[in-house]
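User:
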Amino acid sequence: MQDKNITINDVARVSGVSKRTVSRVINRSSLVGEKTREHVEKVIKELNFVPDKQARGLASSRSYLLGLIYEHYDSLSIEQVQSGALSVCSELGYELVVHPCKSREENFIEECLASIAKSKLDGVIIVPPVSENKALAAALREMNVQYVRIASVDFDDEDNIVVSDEREAMKGMADHFIELGHRDIGYISGPLRYTSSMERMDGFLSELNSCDINVPNIRIKEGENSYESGFKCAMELLSEDELPTAILANNDEMALGVIRAAHDLGIKVPDQLSVAGFDDNILASRVIPALTTIHRPIDNMAALATQKLVNKIQSEQSLLLTKETAVKPYLVVRESTSKNST
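Assistant: Predicted structure:
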């Protein structure tokens, strides 16, 4: 526990610097030299000094609150997003306000803006698929609300976005299927209204086509990124006279639905059917058989997005935290895929 008698004045006195210099160190100002910063930070740690967030906010005209906007049904990955964002918030003295929304409702933009104003947020991080909404980004710019979007395509200024190269990652998954000898392949896309769904599908199918493997339309189903839709689409794919030897789903939740459908139909995974997903969520390594998938480092993306957001909020007076814009998902091979035995 902090000694409540310890103040910023004490830190300044022990450090041998001015109160303004201590304040600049706390706020990560670029106006402080590295040696001075390290010295003051050491004193802060030794004195166990914790800045008063309310007083800090009043002094800087900021709330030190960041918002996280995400689709309400996305419960599995949002925990990783929060973890990544909070790892930066805790270090920089910010708090995180989580705001689930329903992006398909007519008034969702007005509802988001009202929530931001009510909480007096300094800025927001926007998670897919909400981040793909151009109207929301335009409304935030018009209201002078700082934001950073996490997305699969670079469709904003580099200060406003962190991009996951999902098209390239899906090419890696296609190569994995090819190496295992699969040519009769089924695919369950996410909602095709989302750019991320199109990027993943195009990346996968284009790589297969380059190796003379064609996936006919009858082998492609559109899901809703839910377990239930994955199950439904898999039942359709596995009810044909000629069965695919492998199925790739747009995300892990749908892939788990595929595994359940195969189980109900008496089809062994991976002996008779290889199954793979995308995201590498918390269940991917726990299901039996463990799921082959694409690991999307969403916690790292959220941390980068938070750093970028703080850069924007603190502007030229802050220490530049990051300029990094892109991350690379990668293939994780587990037990749910194997060589084609047919």
